[in-house]
Amino acid sequence: MGEIGVLLRASGRPGRRAALALPVLVFGLLFASDAFAYLDPGTGSILLQGFIAAVAAVVTWLSLSWRHAKAWIRARTGRAPEGADTGASH
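^ thats the sequence. predicted structure below, dont judge the formating
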């Protein structure tokens, strides 16, 4: 496997991978060559669509997490959910 295989093998310590990733990232950024890439007008709309999708995903995740947390707290405290019918007539 060699030295590279030993470095890339999971050692059970997550900090070792992060310590190896930083020098590789810095090396790649310092010695990168020009790409001469062309970005057409459709690229902006794709990036905007991705950003909107990411915001929607975060809002959905927060909403579901908040509902789950409220239900868990209500189960621990024994309070009925808001708007629930307690069986008493008005």
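The chain has two domains: 1-32, 39-78.
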